[in-house]
Amino acid sequence: MAHVQTEFVKLKVSDGTEMRAYVSKPAGLNPAVGLLVFPEVFGVNHHMRAVTDRFAEHGYLSLCPEIFHRTAPPGFESPYDQYPAEHTQALTDAGLDADAKASFDWIQSQGAKNIGAVGYCMGGRVAYSANAFLPLKGAVSYYGTRMLKLENPDLPKNQRGPLLFHWGGLDKSSTSEQLLALTGALKTAGKNFINVEYSRADHGFSCDERASYNAEAAEQAWVLTIAFFKLHLSKA
Amino acid sequence: MPVQSQKIMLKVSDGTEVQAYVSKPAELSPSVGLIVFQEAFGVNHHMRSVTDRFAEHGYLAICPELFHRTAPVGLELAYDNFQAVMPYYQALTDAGLEADGKACFDWLTGQGAKNIGCVGFCLGGRVSFLTNASLPYKAAVSYYGGGIAPTLLPKAKDQKAPVLFHWGGLDKHITPEIVKSVEEAMKTAGKNYISAVYSQADHAFSCDDRPNYNAEAAELAWVSTIAFLKLHLSKV
Fold first, then answer.
1. Domain CATH code at residue A59
2. Which residues of B touch A201 (CB under 8 A)?
3. In this complex, how many residue pairs, one in chain A and one in chain B, have their CB atoms less than 8 Å apart?
4. Would you report the helix, strand and coil content of chain B in percent, each value rounded to 5?
5. CA separation (Å) from B191 to A89, B26, B101?
6. What are A116's strand-pairing partners?
7. By C-alpha distance, which of A25, A22, A91 is closest to A54?
8. In this structure, how many other beta carbons lie within 10 angstroms of the beta carbon of residue B209?
9. Most CB contacts within 10 A, which of A167, B1, B6, B7?
10. Helices (H) and strands (E) in chain B, counts
11. Residue B182, pLDDT score
12. Which residues of B touch A186 (CB under 8 A)?
């Protein structure tokens, strides 16, 4: 595995705000492949930084933006048993899209040609909406169940890069009807997606610092995610 | 790693004999074994190479000729001649398939395998599910298993090992509703499964000798399968 170098960068967002982001890159030259890592609702915390580092170890210039930057101070983290409702409720679709674009533009400015996105929980929803307007080569969502409530009917048909969805079968924040509606819409739109359900996993199953961690599902999902990015982000 | 292959004859509990293709890794890890269940076209070049591929990953792998009660030894059928397949296919019985699975399972056990799994394709995908209800596998993998729903759904509650299902989103014989019915049956029975749908893949997408071959889906499904088998067959 490559050794990684990490830093925090400040990105200018199109609405005039500034957003801090955690960057992890393989030591040495900036690679041609980049990854946007969209975080859960608990901030760019130790776990999200570790995830970002893990992707960098696999050769991706990886960036994890602080999506609460308009309402929370830089470096905001919330414990897993304290849902930061005041910040999640302040999020807007436009704000999240602007944050995704700022992140994408930064990665691109560093020389990355093939850029993908992976998001966890809220971040999964961000990866999905970002894939509707950014030229991502692939987008992965881990239990991004908020996407199931998005009302914009153009989102499925505007999806650009191939998608990979990981869902926990025990996740109460989604219903099978909602999942069928999403995959049905994507299928109707002729989109390339892989939809995976892990029956014994719950929301947050990939986070080894959360109670819902499921090591088997996390390992399976990880292997598939890495293979998915290798396949799609390696294309010339 | 290099493999050695041979054909062997096994005695089956109903008094018949079944020829099976066996592929053994040069560095044999005797404690893991795999039964590979064929598609509807016989243990042909493709099935032998799949069996070899698993052996290259360290599994003692065996692929039995499921049509042995009605077909000559070594029968292979052309992919575009499903008419020729039909009489052999229709002559299959669940009892016969279970007995064939058991003969292979017992043979692997006799060779020293302690952790045994199965991987089946198409017809074989159904056989994986069927035999997972009676044999103490550690893992069962089913690629586009037609005929699991509706007739085998009562066996969902008897599934022993975790199951990994791969489905092609374009499969006209295995529709999203059918996939959902399998998932629901497994869920109701509280079983451990992963269900993955590849939206742009059709039935038999993993077979590189057939027109429906989808290299991307095949590669990702393969990676998942290998990780799944490693996870579950490595357990003490």
1. 3.40.50.1820
2. none
3. 70
4. 35, 25, 40
5. 36, 35, 21
6. A35, A138
7. A25
8. 13
9. A167
10. 6, 8
11. 98
12. 199
Number of structural domains in chain A: 1
Q: At what angle do helices A176-188 and B176-188 cross, to 10 degrees?
A: 160
Residue A224 clears pLDDT 60, i.e. is over it: yes
Q: What Rg, from alpha-carbon coordinates, does chain A have?
A: 16
Choose the closest CB to B169 out of A180, A187, A196.
A187
SS (H, E, C) A66-131: CCCCCCCCCCCECCCCCCCHHHHCCCCHHHHHHHHHHHHHHHHHCCCCEEEEEEECHHHHHHHHHC
Structure tokens at A190: 């002729």
B3-233 is classed in which CATH architecture? 3-Layer(aba) Sandwich (3.40)
* A231–B219 CB contact, under 8 Å: yes
**SS (HEC) of chain A:** CCCEEEEEEEEECCCCCEEEEEEEEECCCCCCEEEEEECCCCECCHHHHHHHHHHHHCCCEEEEECCCCCCCCCCCECCCCCCCHHHHCCCCHHHHHHHHHHHHHHHHHCCCCEEEEEEECHHHHHHHHHCCCCCCCEEEEECCHHHHHCCCCHHHHCCCCCEEEEEECCCCCCCHHHHHHHHHHHHHCCCCEEEEEECCCCCCCCCCCCCCCCHHHHHHHHHHHHHHHHHHHCCC
- CA torsion angle for A226, A229, A231, A232 (degrees, to 10)? 170
**Mean pLDDT computed over B193-199:** 98
Chain B residue with Cα closest to A229: B220
Domain of A48 in residue numbering reads as: 4-233
Q: Does residue B203 carry a catalytic annotation?
A: yes
Identify the active-site residue in B52, B100, B171, B202: B171
For residue B96, what are its two tokens?
């016969």
Interface membership of B208 toward A (CB under 8 Å): no
pLDDT at A2: 67
Query: Pairing state of beta strands A18-26 and A61-65?
Result: antiparallel
For residue B26, pLDDT beyond 90: no
